[in-house]
Amino acid sequence: MTAEQIASLQSALCTLIQRFRPHFNRQATFEHFQCYLLGLMADLKRKSIEPIALAAGTAVRSLQEFLAFFVWDHQRVNDQLQRMVANEHGGCEGGGIGVLDASGHAKSGDKTPGVQRQYCGETGKIDNCVMGQHLLYTDNDSTNPFCCVLASDLFLPKCWDEDRERCKAAHIPDDVKHRTKWRIGLDQIKQAIGNGVRFAWLTFDEDYGKVPAFWFGLDELGQRGIGEVPRNFRCWTKPPKYRSLRTEFAASEIQHLYRHSPAFTGQAWRKMKIKDSTRGPVVWEVKHAQVHLVDTSHNDSRGSHATDRTYWLIVARNVRTREVKYFVSNAPAGVSLEQLMAVAFARWHIEQWFQRAKQECGFGAFEVRTYKSLMRHWLCSRLVMYFLAAQTQRLRGKNPRITLEQIAEVANTLAEKIWHNCRRSWSQLIRRCAYHQSRNEASYASRRRGRENTDSS
């Protein structure tokens, strides 16, 4: 990375921050906004309010009130972020890929909005945590990808919704109610589409795919999607002859359907390479058929209704591990199976985004007790990640060895420079980036040699 490229990041950062100036009535509030963004970029051990305020030389109380009480329209800031993504990164034909996912953030207390014992992906167990529902956009460019989380909403547990005094203490508005994650996800998709974002596809895990009403919601939006479903998900390969409570007319679990239905037993497994990994190509075997889902909009005592239209049901089996996954899609029957599988396995984008956002900009480091503070912290973290991703894509077009982590390291120094506390010179930074690039290149070459040796043997 050259000195000119590093210097260009400072002007790009100032330009980005100034684009949000119209959403702040007071200059002092806008300066706190800039301070918080710089703090999330800075090289701090923990990127929460107090460390940021101390590093910036700002009163801790002022920064707390900026998040919790100062007047600025964070929803309009989020809308502008979505419009920026649509205008500047939505150029791929037909739109990008949207990924829905929820993330848990472990918290030890009981005051953080929405905290309760539930499954936490961060710790991998049932834990005391806050759950967020997120929508990511990626252009899925294989050589120079761009990713940005467009929306983040709090999943409010039912026990919180039923205790409005507790909600009032956390400043949770009365119109924020308990909603399932899939309903929040649909609302996030609608909002993003309304701001000009176009998704060629959506993908998600079985928490969303297992709900027929979620698929019908996508159908109403005219939005194609493919997502995992659990093995006990029910459907028919042919509509039942009668609506009846008798077992022979009921929908079948897909774990039995693909083993016994002629729609699956009559076809051979088809091998498909999904991607290349450090251990070599990842190959899955697939079978597929058109099926009818259970139409949950009817409440009929005579038995379940089958949907008039058909959906894809894909069974995929990993050749090496024998792991089996099940996918449903509302895409037209003429869509290629290769395209469907490529989208189905694109969820790694959001997993990588969470990992980077927690490491580089304190996405999970919030220490707040009000709903508005939490929403604003997540928003500011997403803005920082947008800057890092956009600049990585821009500079990587000139130098493919540049990584987001290197851009984040430059951003650390930029924050210190703007705060007049720069401890590293540009020449030191250039040497460090060159060192990381050479190490990455050596690592990639070693992996390529390993794959070639595996293939030849």
Structure explained in plain terms:
The chain is an alpha+beta fold. It folds into 2 domains: 272 residues, no CATH class; 109 residues, no CATH class. Helix content is 45%, strand content 20%. It is built from 17 helices and 13 strands. Strands 1, 2, 3, 4, 5, 6, 7, 8, 9, 10, 11, 12 and 13 form a 13-stranded mixed sheet that branches. The longest helix has 31 residues. The chain is globular. The model has no long low-confidence stretch (mean pLDDT 89).
Question: TL;DR of this structure?
Answer:
The protein has 457 residues and is α+β, with helices and mostly antiparallel strands. It contains 17 helices and 13 strands.
Parts with pLDDT < 50 across at least 5 consecutive residues: none
Q: Kindly state the percentage of residues in helix.
A: 40-55%
Question: Major sheet: size, sense and barrel closure?
Answer: 13 strands, mixed
Question: How many H/I helical runs?
Answer: 17
What letter string, H or E per element, gives the SSE order?
HHHHHEEEEHHHEHHEEEHHEEEEEHHHHH
**Outline type:** globular
Average pLDDT score: 89
Total number of domains: 2
Strand content: 15-25%
Structural class designation = alpha+beta
Q: Please give the number of β-strands.
A: 13
Rg of Cα set: 24 Å
Quote the distance from N terminus to C terminus: 39 Å
Question: Secondary-structure blueprint of this entry?
Answer:
Layout: H1 3-18, H2 27-41, H3 49-56, H4 60-68, H5 74-89, E1 96-106, E2 116-120, E3 125-138, E4 147-154, H6 158-161, H7 164-169, H8 181-194, E5 199-204, H9 206-209, H10 212-221, E6 225-228, E7 234-236, E8 252-253, H11 254-260, H12 262-265, E9 270-277, E10 280-295, E11 305-306, E12 311-318, E13 324-329, H13 337-344, H14 348-360, H15 371-396, H16 404-418, H17 426-456
Parallel strand pairs: 1-5, 5-6
Antiparallel strand pairs: 1-3, 2-3, 3-4, 6-13, 7-8, 7-10, 9-10, 10-11, 10-12, 12-13
Helix pairs in contact: 2-3, 2-15, 4-15, 5-15, 8-10, 15-16
